[in-house]
Each structure stands twice: as C-alpha cells, then as structure tokens.
Amino acid sequence: PARAVAAMADQAPDSLDALNAIIKRSEPLVPGATQAVLGEGPLGASIAFVGEQPGDQEDHQGRPFVGPAGQLLSRAMEEAGLVRADAYLTNAVKHFKFEERGKRRIHQKPTASEVSHYRWWLDRELDFVAPKLVVALGATAVLALTGKQIPITRARGPADFEKPYAGFITVHPSYLLRLPDEAKAQAYADFVADLRRVHELGL
Ligand code: URA
Predict the structure, then answer these.
(1) Most ligand 1 atoms within 8 A of CB, residue of 65, 72, 122, 170 to mutate
(2) The domain 2-201: what is its CATH number?
(3) For residue 172, what are the contacts with CB-CB under 8 A and spacing of at least 6?
(4) Residue in 66, 55, 63 with CA at minimum distance from that of residue 37
(5) Domain coordinates of the chain in residue numbers?
(6) Which value does ipTM take for this structure?
(7) 116: how many CB neighbours lie within 10 A of its CB?
(8) pLDDT, tens only, 70-118
(9) Which of 6, 13, 45, 89 is the most buried (most CB within 10 A)?
(10) 4 C-alpha vs ligand 1 centroid, how far in Å?
C-alpha cells in the first residue's frame, strides 16, 4: 500500500475533476464492478456524507446512493430538513464488491485493507470539497475517516476526525433496512434525529 500511495501521490491531482479522472481509470481491487462510482454534489457543500461502497444499483447507474439504502437516506434527509442536492455524497470504497448468488449480486463488506487502499482518494476528495461537516454513515466510513475500528453504538454523535472539518457518526441506512420490523420505526426515528443535529451543525 505504501508504494501504491506514493504512486498516487505522484499524480498529484490539482482538482476534484483531476482526482475523479484517476479514480475512473483505476481497476477495482476485487474484479467485477462495472465502474467506479464517484462522489456527487457541489464543491463547497457544507455537509458531506460518506457511505461504505456502491451497491448493485449504484454500480449499474454509476451514481452513489440511488438504490434502496440511498432512497431511505434521501427520505430521512428530507424529514430532517436537509436538501440532498446541496450535500456532497460519496463512499469510502469506490467499487462494488459482491458475491454472485444465482442472478443476484450480494454485497460483500470491504476488508480493512481494501478500505485503506481507497483512503488516500477519500482524503483528497474531501480536501477539494472542503465541507464544514463530514458525516460517517456506518463503521466502514468511520474506519476510512479515522483509520480506527470504532463501534457505532459507542461513537454515535459529534466526532473529532482530526481534520479541518467537524465530524459526525451515525448508522448506515442499509442497517435500518436489515432490522426486524418491530425495531425499524424507532431506529429510523433515531436516524432522522441524528440528521436533524447534522443539519444544525452544518448551518
Ligand atoms: N450504500 C453505500 O454505502 N453507498 C451507496 O452508494 C449505496 C449504498
């Protein structure tokens, strides 16, 4: 990884477009993904959201957070008074990793070393976007932003990522989709409450 980072640093992208061109050209660490899914949203957005990795639909469409988890995130953002188009949305890992089961492509969690491979890009990306607040959605985003494995339940809320921007940790929307029905409503309400705090912190 040190050599890979040095090689990437050599390319010294001087803009988000230049960085995105490098990401677009890169091969997935694990073969299979259709394309790299880049971050989306305005440069200078006051809030940036970092997810885990693109899912099946993101991989096909080439846009972050357009599948079921993304739709849930959009709905919760709206309820919290956040405008999705004003935020910057990206992922810790830029390629979909999956296991084929019949016709379905089942998401596989990226390993710590895969997350670390993509960290240099994420750091540069957030430097260019320069948000006021970065929201880590779930443990993979926390690992990507801090280099540490931290349980979400303990760290949930405002966080210090030792970066120029403020940090906030909450659950990943796909976690809400996987919960048993009787737990969903409360967990969703808690997620919206977190996003209301994010909205206030990002003002
Ligand atoms: N989950 C993520 O973490 N990111 C996406 O873009 C979609 C689903």
Answers:
(1) 65
(2) 3.40.470.10
(3) 51, 52, 69, 137, 138, 139, 140, 141
(4) 63
(5) 2-201
(6) 0.92
(7) 17
(8) 999 999 999 999 999 999 999 999 999 999 999 999 999 999 999 999 9
(9) 89
(10) 25
